[in-house]
What does this fold into?
Amino acid sequence: MTVYSFYIFDRHAECIYKRRWLPRPVSTSSKPSRPTSEVQTLSNGVPPSSGRLSRSADDDAKLIFGTVYSLRNMVRKLGGEDDSFISYRTSQYKLHYYETPTNIKFVMLTDTKAPSMRIALQQIYVNLYVEYVVKNPLSPIEHPGGVGVNNELFEESLEQFVTRVLS
It folds into this structure.
């Protein structure tokens, strides 16, 4: 099983942690990219900034949260309050979702053959996030303006967890 990326969102929809292990899978049916020497222009004739040519990690986090938010609301409307959104699969990846009682959201992208990661995400929350981030007196309680989790013990433990336990 391969883990592509991992995200943590706080209760204010801010991405407070993101980690990518492997590049996102590329679709074989996508259009070939344009050569870098070719200049693209917007409708007003101004060339786009270099940031617009490729999505940044922040843009990916926003897209992930938007997808999770929409699917979670759709599941609640169709199935009632007792049903919860756990995961979904596309042809290229599988998204796993876990939400804590304090509305911290954990999202993991894996390959399509991965089993449910709900227990693994719960273990990351209980054994890593709570131990190294929540119980750390130097860690901020709120993460305003995108100030995220910056804890070496958490990052090292997450790396070990993903490589040992999930491999």
Observations:
- Residues 30-53 have pLDDT under 50 and may be disordered.
- The first helix runs from residue 50 to 53.
